[in-house]
Amino acid sequence: MKVLKFGGTSLGTPARMIMLNELINVDQKQIIVLSAVSGTTNSLLEIAGLLSTNKNEEAVNKLNNLENYYHSFIHELFSDPIYLKKAKLLIDEHFTYLRSFTIDLFTNNEERIILAQGELISTALFHFYLQSKNIPSILHSALDFMKLDENGEPDIEYLKLNFLPKINENPSVNIHITQGFICRNFFGQIDNLKRGGSDYTASLIGAAISAEEIQIWTDIDGMHNNDPREVSGTSPVPFLTFDEAAELAYFGAKILHPQSVLPAQKYGIPVRLLNTMEPLANGTLISLVSAKDNITAIAAKDNITAIRIQSSRMLLAYGFLRRIFEIFERYKTPIDMISTSEVAVSITIDDDTSLEKIKSELLELGQVVIDQQLSIICVVGNFPVKESGAASEIFDALKEIPIRMISYGGSANNISVLVNSTDKKAALNALHKKLFL
Ligand code: ASP
Ligand code: MG
Questions:
Q1: DSSP class per residue in 244-278
Q2: What integer pLDDT is reported at residue 387 of this predicted model?
Q3: Which residue from 306, 322, 429, 430 has the least number of CB within 10 angstroms?
């Protein structure tokens, strides 16, 4: 069985939703995971934001606009009046429900319920569409089997126990549709797997049912060897290992939700990144095999903050790093890069929500210097310790660019440097020229 995930842009217009039909092989058992129609999650998030600041009138206006958008969407999607009517009822129901949140006092839980409507609508519409074309399919609610455990981690065992039987219940139906992104938390409330989480859903399902392959369909032909927004002449990377893909996804290659590599990797399920606009292109296959044995791709991650903690107390002391790390742990702030000298340590973070609080605690350990608006440039590939040359090529390419931090040797797959974001474009281009051309 294959799992196919289609992102918001693959559903962005009725014509595109109709096109999905051609990408699905109705003769094979498949699980179709859908995101919300593109733009919907952003709009719902805005609406929730307005409600949380008591701007209910504005929220109602935005809801009306979104509802109108869906009404014209379904008019284009369905020519059959029976299905058009069904779709109208569906849209009415969801928007009546959404409007109920504009009357009562707003709580934070409600944001997640509001966001979930996007995926619930897109999957129901696609289900109606297949029915209107006489293609047998079943719509499964992800809320019945996608659950977070007490640590907020998806529960794969629960997914296995509760989803596979539902598929097997109807052996004659090949197409099983479900929502990406949405789930229930440990308390049974509606929750989600964070922005872009539909990829993660697909990977979790693929892992739970031991799928033959997980396909992530987007609007670009695979993961590119550099950021196409910053560098011209980038090309798709045909093969990536799970480790390389995880590094790239985390360091800015927006095409894949970073966490989504893990379940597939753990259960050894290959992930294929494909392009709905060019279905025959090879895309990128993520598996245990890498194509190249050296440098595979370059990516960049912006909005990085670097924090340097300097203290003579660090000299020859033990336990100093632990005390630093504990502060970040207390504020649930992940650390990306680390670089140490005997009297100082530099750390980068991506989430600066608790920066001020972290800083004030760090000041008890030493002097603190903070730099913002930095970018991590990450070169991904295979850099075995025994082989020489990769680092020298990278630094030769970057010889004109001031470097704030370097990370090498953390894994055999990643060499990262930290630069000012204003130098990012130049750095990506210089590396591209040196490493790929
Ligand atoms: N619809 C959600 C989002 O926009 C999930 C996804 O698209 O993967 O973040
Ligand atoms: Mg996405």
A1: HHHHHHHTT-TTS-GGGHHHHHHTT--EEEEETTS
A2: 75
A3: 322
